[in-house]
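Hi there,

I know you've been waiting on this one. I reran it after we fixed the sequence typo, so this is the corrected version. Both the input and the resulting structure follow.
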Amino acid sequence: MTPSLPDPGSLLQEATGAMRQGDPDRAGRLAASALEQFRARGDADGRMRSENLLGAVAFERGEIGRRNPASEPRLALRTNSRTV
């Protein structure tokens, strides 16, 4: 039997706590893991919440303004969510 993955909502909550405690590296890892699971489930709301936290992590690390090809799907997600 394969071990079950932690609930992505719980991971995101833990990531938020890590940010509040000043640990953006841990928050980023947890939020990225949550994002993967939300994507696998097709949960657009969860994906947007994860992306939002990952944006806060990037800001905290001073990475805002650098071009990041991984952010392109984030922009599409936000654009698509407005048309729904």
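Quick highlight: The chain has a mean pLDDT of 84.

Best,
R. S.
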